[in-house]
Amino acid sequence: MSIFRNHFPLGLGTNRFLVSGPKDIKGIENSIELVCHALESGVTYADVGFHYSAGMTPMILKEAFQRTGKKFSVTAKVMYDQDKTADDACKRVELYLNAMGIEKAEYFTCWAIWNYEVFENIMKKGGVYDGAIKLKEEGIIDHICCSLHAPSEDMLKIIKSRVFEGITVSYSVLNAVNMNPILDAAYENGISVAVMNPLGGGIMAQNQDFFSFTCGEEDDGNTVHAALRFAKAHPAVDLVLGGVSNIDELEDCVSVFTQLDPEPPKKRTERVLRSAEDMRGFCTGCRYCDGCPKGIPTAAIMQARNAFLFEPCAAYNRTGPKDLLCNLQMFRKFFFDFNWFPDTAKNPCIKCGKCEKQCTQNLNIIDAVADTYRRAEQTYFTKTAHKERLYALLYQKGYKKVGLYPNGGFSNLVITLYREFFGEPEFEWLHFNSDPKTWGQMADGRIIHDPSKIPKLQPDLILICTYKYDEDILDSLRQYEQCGVRLEKLHRVEEMPWVF
Ligand code: SF4
Ligand code: SF4
């Protein structure tokens, strides 16, 4: 029986609350009210990440739980990039529970499995999966799940291993051709499915006219309703995660799932998939173009470039220009869905034409590939660009101490890449974080410091690693320049996030 079956079909996504940080009292209060409303409306599941909504999600949920006397079933997510051992995983879950003021999390999620190698690392003896088993034996969690962002073949292998009771995957009209076999495999293997990004990361809501073909007669021309119903229509799917920012959006999404789908789900799936294949210029992900002699992932490139067909949404605190937003949309998909990150921006295409001859949609793949490598260069989306950046910022600068702010996925990557490119540094790394809950904790064997300690610790440089809030953090740290501390942002203008 599905581990998600008893939940209300809409799960609350918690990464879109309109709150900017601990000082945003109005944003926090509105978000708490939103969560209370979700609890009162019968929503029973929330997808929680520790850093979601500027790191405020756990605290917002805790307060809503206390006010309503009700609780969601929640996820505690452990990402291999951050937590590598069973002990790390157990400590991370403890942090989640304390921050939300609860004693157990129904779901443990091995978060963001990018490829089969990450899966194998999670499964190693003494690794994250062993930590999950221990927590399950102790009754601190009930179910071991994962979220998959891996290439299709890897997802299928992971599903068939049957080590997870549930999976969370991206699923919408935009990737349905590709993802349907994955959902079929989950269904056949008895693995429960929660779907994220049912509106294609906001693209469908932003481009309702373009996607009006997804509406059946009973959807009253409402593309958002049609998209949510489509995501739920596959028999493997029990939960559709909706990230909402206000009570109107929440009520609208809840209303979709308080009634049965007016169109038989199988009919809906088949109808929408047929129409998706007719979208002009749209890559369906059928992969007939696979097999490039130069190893170019043409299908991945073309699917990610679907982003250029639509009005882009604001993302990562950036509201424009349009080209930047399209690039974010496209490269994010490379990063999350296809695990593609080129070493250099040199386009290896020899224009043999093999891919275009096989394309079912007659797409101009050769031009698109060339444009994609050009954009990779322009936005520093290559390993070489990252190496050059770290060289310019840190290598042989005579620094004794380099601060990374905040600690997390970006700072871990900076440390790992520096070591890979240049060996052990001649300086000491220091971690800083504005969240008081992290102060004094260890991250990768290093203590996390309160930023007010900067004058005493006297780093030569503080590298602002995050992408979303880099301007805000820079402003908050300006005061330390007077003590001789140099401040730098990791990301340049136009640059794609090093971690999405
Ligand atoms: S034309 Fe370029 S991208 Fe297409 S198969 Fe040939 S080398 Fe690969
Ligand atoms: S053959 Fe065409 S439609 Fe199919 S995945 Fe390749 S580019 Fe996309």
Strand order of the largest sheet: 1-2-3-4-5-6-7-8
| Oligomeric state of the chains in view | single chain
List the uncertain runs: none
Instruction: Sketch the major β-sheet.
Output: 8 strands, parallel, barrel
Shape-level CATH architecture of the largest domain: Alpha-Beta Barrel
Shape: globular
Helix content: 40-55%
Overall pLDDT score = 93
CATH fold call of the largest domain: TIM Barrel
| Contiguous helical run count | 20
Straight-line distance between termini = 34 Å
Broad structural category? alpha/beta
CATH top-level class of the largest domain: Alpha Beta
Strand-residue proportion: 5-15%
Q: What is the total domain count?
A: 3
Bound molecules: iron/sulfur cluster
Keywords, separated by commas or semicolons:
single chain, alpha/beta, TIM Barrel, Rossmann fold, eight-stranded parallel barrel, 14 strands, 41% helix, globular, binds iron/sulfur cluster
Question: Could you write a compact summary of the structure shown?
Answer:
Helix content is 41%, strand content 14%. It has 500 residues and is of the alpha/beta class.
Written overview of the protein:
The protein is α/β, with parallel strands linked by helices. The chain has three domains: 266 residues, NADP-dependent oxidoreductase domain (TIM Barrel); 82 residues, no CATH class; 106 residues, Rossmann fold. Helix content is 41%, strand content 14%. Strand 6, helix 8 and strand 7 form a beta-alpha-beta unit. The protein is globular and about 65 Å long. The protein binds iron/sulfur cluster (2 copies). One iron/sulfur cluster (SF4) binds next to helix 13. The site of one iron/sulfur cluster has 15 residues, from helix 15 and helix 16.
